[in-house]
Structure formats: C-alpha cells, structure tokens
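anyone else get weird line breaks when pasting these?? whatever heres mine. first is seq + tokens for prot A
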Amino acid sequence: MVNTTAKKPGLNDWWIQRISASCISLFVLPMLVLWFGGWLNQASDWYIYLASVSGKALTLLGITGFLLHARIGLWVVITDYAPKRFQGLAIGLMTLYLLAVVFWAVYLVWIIS
C-alpha cells in the first residue's frame, strides 16, 4: 500500500515554481498587450499605468512570483554547486537579498508612486 500522507517537499517546490511562473505571466502579459497595442508609447503612459490600482496590484503579483520563483531557482543552484559547509550561509544570504529586493520594489511601487 502506498503512503499518500507522506510529505513531498519536491512536489511542493514544483507547485510553487509553476504558480510563481503563472503570477509572473499575469504581470507581464497585460503590459505586453498594452505596449504592443500602442497604449504605452511614452514614459508618462508607463507611469500612469503603473500608478493605477490595477498596475500596482499586478506589479505586487509579479514581485511575489519573482520572489518565489527566484528562491527555488537559486536554492537549486546553491545546493548543486556550493560546498556543503557554505550552503547554509549562502541560502541565508540569498534569502536576505531576495527580501531586500522585494521590499525595495514594493517601496518603489506602492510608497513613491
């Protein structure tokens, strides 16, 4: 009999990677449609779009997707290529860096604009 209640961290990472890619796509696709459609020709058009509530919400969704996607991708690189004795430090520094990037991006999008 197969134990279906066992924890599967690899499966969780797989789902997070797919969901975060979808979040990034939901952020990028409307911007590409607006850009190629000719509605975002000037810098002021970009500012107006990104300052709107929908632009801010999609940007937050994209930032969240970026954080989750980059975390798993960098974790794989670190565990594959960094020596075992440095992996904990590298993962900690990676987490701090990604959180700093996300806080900076949220500050730029939600506070400044």
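and prot B, same format (seq, then tokens)
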Amino acid sequence: MELFDILNEDGSKMGIQKERKLVHEDGDLHASIHVWAYRINKKSREIEVLLQKRSLEKDSFPGCLDAASTGHLDAGETFESAAIREVFEEIGINIEKKHLHYIGEQRFSNDEYFHGKHFLNNEINHIYLIDESISLEDIHYQESEISGVKWQNINEMLDQIKEGNDIYCTDFSEVLKVWSFIINRI
C-alpha cells in the first residue's frame, strides 16, 4: 500500500498520511517529482529529451508521453530520494543526489477520468535534470509503469504541445523550464 504525506498549501507536511487511492479521490495536496534526461543529437546538434510512454494500465494519463521518470513521494521521503528511487525503478539507471540538477517547483492540479474512474490530482512537483555525465545507454524500463521510451527533439515537443497535441502529459511551461535550463548548461 502506497502512503503519501498530505501537504499544507505552503508545501509543509500536515502530519497526516493517506493511501494513494484516497489522496486522488479526495484531491489532497501531495508531492511528486519529474526527472528529465537529455542529450545533444550527434547529427543534428539539436537537444533531445528522453520521454517515457506511460503504460496503458496506469491509473493516470495512460499511454501518454512524459518526462524520463516521474512519481510520487512516499510518506517520509524527500524530493531527492524519490527522484533517485524513481529513476532506478522506472528506467534502471543508478544515480546519486550529485547527479540531479534542481530546475524548479510547480503546482499541478487536474480533474480527470481514466479507465472510467474519477482522478482528482493536486500536487507540488519538483523538476530535476539528470547530469549529462550519466550514461543512458543501458536503459531498462519497468514494463508495469512504462510501455516504451524514446528520444524527442525538445523544440518539436514544445511546438506540438503549443499546438494542443494531447499525447504529452506535461505542460508547455515545464518543458520550457527544462529547455531553458539545458540551454544555460551547454
């Protein structure tokens, strides 16, 4: 059973823990992470980001394209430890805290139906970039979470999100933050 810490509006913990299912039924504020990975395409010299295609069995956003690794914080967990755990669980890459670059925080709320069930999401999300020194050659994704991975030109992704392509379950502002952070690193 997954337990999440319930957060106050300022992001501090309330001292209450609830089961994942109940958190999304009630719309409680909770914490999550998005971890992005990138490379420079050797032929085009363009920035590409690694995207996961979420499993069709996921309880939220099934089949859509998302950051390389995403997930919720378990009760008592820090944002950094959740990022390290999720990267290993989802794409099989071992990283340490020093390999994570913090990009920023965002609030994410949505009220959707997936698989005929109501899903009320209200989270504070920390966004990270994996250090470019990490080898992504040996990606082994968790098939219960992810149905595939692919490299996507970040400029094309931004254009497609701007045009309303709903295959992505990340928003324009997040991808723009990632793009800006990468541009300032290279």
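btw re prot B: The radius of gyration is 16 Å. The chain has four helices and ten strands.
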